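Checklist before submission:
- one chain only
- standard amino acids only
- sequence pasted in full

Submission:
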Amino acid sequence: MTSAGARSALWVSILACALGCAEPVEDDAPAEGRTTESIVHRLVDPTHRLEAQVAPETLLLGTGLGVPARPGGLAGVASATIEDDTRYVLASHPNARLRDHQLRLDASGSEWAVSVALGSELRGAAKIVAVPLVKIPGRKWQTLDAVLLPVYRSDRGRLVDLDLPATIPRSGKVRLQVEAHQPPGRTTSYRTRAIDIPGTAALEFSLGVLEAARNQGPVRFFIEACHEANCAAIFDEVLEPASEAAQGWQDRRVDLSPLGGSPTTLHFTTVHMGDGAFSLPVWGAPTVVAATAEPDTRLNVVLLSIDTLRRDHLDLYGYDRETAPYLRNRLAARGTAIESLIAEAASTDPSHMTMFTSLPSLVHGVTCCRKRLAVPVVTLAEILRGRGYHTAAFTENGPLAHERGFSIGFDRYIENKTPGRIRPTGHVARTFGQARSWLEEHSEGPFFLFLHTFQVHAPYEPPAAYERTFADSPSRGASAEAGPIIDAYDREIRYTDDELRMLHEWMEARGINERTLWIVLSDHGEEFFEHGTRGHATLPYETVLRVPMIFQGPGIRSGARLSSAVRHVDLMPTVLDLLGMPAEPQSTGASFAAALLGNAAPPREDLPPTPIFSTSWVLPKGMTAPALSVRQGDFKLIRYQKDGAEHFEFYDLASDPDEANDLYSADDTRQLRLREHLVRYLKESSVRRRALAGAGSESHESPLFTPDPDTEETLRALGYIE
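Returned file contents:
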């Protein structure tokens, strides 16, 4: 039989048995019993860009991110979020959050008549799914039932009208937001280009229905594999999203081995089968994987950020309380501790985006409050994902929001949010537990796992089991006001260290750590009234800039200390260097991998130290952001604006490490040199930002994102939104 005839006979056989020969199975096998597999095709990626073929009234375009996309970049790939779990999808439903200022409330009869103006994200919609959220003074936000509404035009633009229940008080103090989605028709269809499928391949994917359509009836998800004119169903499932078992993402796996050796087109279809008015189905990250003859020996990476962790509150760095014995005795003792990591910023969001991009906050634009990425970027997660790494992130409490660009490059991006006023107790256990669950499926690697916990962030509320921790060792030099706060803060550190121990030992017992690079660090520190304030809404003092960093893993020097000052901007090129990958052209940092491996030449003493710049974007009242600092050697200059006037502070850190004695003098030559460095830094950052934004761009201001109401309240409680 000819090869063409054999392929035809194979497909006839597949068609004859249809689903009987290719039953979908969930991938429930434990990690240790699985064959090592590699990623062959990620069907959502630009290199496998698919053509959407959709039914009438269906529009499956857009990401909802609102961040600048570069050609081929993942910022332009569609994504969807179900229960705070964001994944890349074949296509998404255009959506927008319509805020208070876009609404007009008119009391009419026994109900509120509400006119809602649509944004540009929904310009193609003839109908929208509206989910009203109402805030009555003294009560929590209330989510009302989703409703399908027609769009009409008026002199105010494109509007929809909806009615609110009579139970909503007729008061101007009532707040209203509307989550709006553009629904597809009853059928969606998505066909891939022809792809080569290995003989040992399987298709892994997720399916789900967005929460707004949870009560609108079942949806049929089915997949056909086609070779030339012959097609066979390889997956068929009806999902009832109202049932508890079907809520959230549903992970599935289908054997593709019968299709190996033939160019194949995959056809993904959904059909809304219920009586509901609409549905919002999504296909999550369909990926072709295949068994490999040899295990992938590349290093995994775990990046753990413990938010708001001061360097000088760790016993690793000489603190008199044993706040983190596991970090000291296991990770640092077997790895290298960085003596002087200077944070990019005194707040969460700018420092983390700098870690991911090797760009200063003045360039990437994620500075504070609700600012998104201002320029197209390449992220660390995106690079590793492009090299075949599995990528996942588990973060907490709002600032590192998917919509701001932090999820770029992560196959899964989980946000553990605290409704209303932030209560972080227990978050770290939940976050690390989710990481363990993910590792059970991906421990064969290679993987990049980002963990971010707010456990050490205010308000400090450690579990009851830690109530007496450090009761017999009062903090030295603390005032009566600061003492109890520091006690609670230190207990949070000890609790987090205990949770880290359980995660690290769990990975150790499974042999995962043998091929894993661990990086533990913080984004910024905390003030305990050293300069008159509590928290980190302050000028860029050492209390909020000096943070810990530890590297541990294969090849990293054991029990070593790196004394040279490093920055958050250096993290990305260092990780890539340790993995044998080149730095990105956009990077402004420098790799210190050679020092971690023991291959670095001693620094030249005849060269002046590199200036290190930091920023503060959240400041006390009366000050205008940003405040800037530049440090060169032991000398440090801070510049800020207060009440419209420019101010400076100057410190000699060698003799005054606590920055208690301001030595500023306008005619001091050392200070003039630091001022010149600041001016040059501002100019270079502006030039770089314009270059990344692209020629001809009129504005480089960071766009804003609109958080959901609970997240907004949390960010306000944390001081990130006024």
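Reviewer check: Confidence is low (pLDDT under 50) at residues 15-33, 52-63.
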